[in-house]
Amino acid sequence: MDLPIITYSPPTTPADLLRHYHKVVYDLSLSHSESEPLDAGVAISNPKLSTSDAANRMYDAMQPPGATPDATVASVDRHFASLGGMCLGWVLNPSLPVPTELVTALESRGFVRRSRTVFHWTPRSRSDVKDVITTQILPARSAYRQARDLAEVYASASGIPAMVELTMAHLDEPRFDAFLAMREGVAVASIGVMAAGELGLIDDFFVAPVACDDASLARTIMGRAIELCRRSTFSHVFLSAPRDDPKMQALANAFGFEGIGEYVEYVRQ
After folding, report:
1. DSSP conformational letter for 88
2. Bridge partners of 137?
3. What would the pLDDT profile of 26-63 be if each residue is shown by its tens digit?
4. How far apart are CA 58 and CA 206, in angstroms?
5. How many Cα atoms occupy the beta-carbon half-sphere of 204 within 13 Å?
6. 127 φ, ψ (degrees, to nearest 5)
7. Domain extents in the chain
8. Are strands 136-139 and 111-121 parallel, antiparallel or unpaired?
9. CA 11: distance to chain centroid?
10. Which ranges of the chain would DSSP assign to H, the alpha helix?
11. What is the pTM of this model?
12. Which CATH architecture best describes the domain 121-260?
């Protein structure tokens, strides 16, 4: 007699999902930076992007046993200095209690807490979006010049010059699929999906200022990313949005994403 096949899916808590989100964000960071394990966490660095906190930071940061907060920060600073750069950001280990003394040491050195709302979606999630229009969507790798032009607009709008190279580096990551929305041969919006096993991350979502009032355009390009995620083998899909961006949060909710917590980083000012 054939035995029944029993499929078991262990319960997933918001804390579990946040750890998954941290993992896939870290994986994507390796498209533009080199990593090295330290006692205080994992350092990623790219001296060529020395002004970018996204390219020069600590992940899974912690205060090592027996070390003081000042000694922890000093050891990290020495590591980055040996590479010709500086640590510009810290992301704490989500599996550990918040090391309050380390946070105090970072804040005393000019690091500022910054957070984003993390959203979670599964292929079974509902979607309230019904009026997605048809527009020309191209793979970003097939329109490299237009992708770079839009990245320069992105950098100007965000005030982060390094955003150009960070965005373009994602196109060199084979697990990252990027798309452009085109109007009259000009890219006016972008989005990408990073694959890390059963985890997916929607990132590099940007609508140029000339089209930022066109809600249908945002829905269209988000819909393309969702379509890709539905065809994938992802069990979990994530995206994040600044806590002060109600438009992005409303768009995430419309596509069935649910907030699961916040992604906190400490950034040097």
Report:
1. -
2. 181
3. 999 999 999 999 999 999 999 999 999 999 999 999 99
4. 26
5. 32
6. -145, 130
7. 14-117, 121-260
8. unpaired
9. 24
10. 14-29, 69-82, 100-108, 144-158, 163-170, 215-231, 246-254
11. 0.91
12. 3-Layer(aba) Sandwich (3.40)
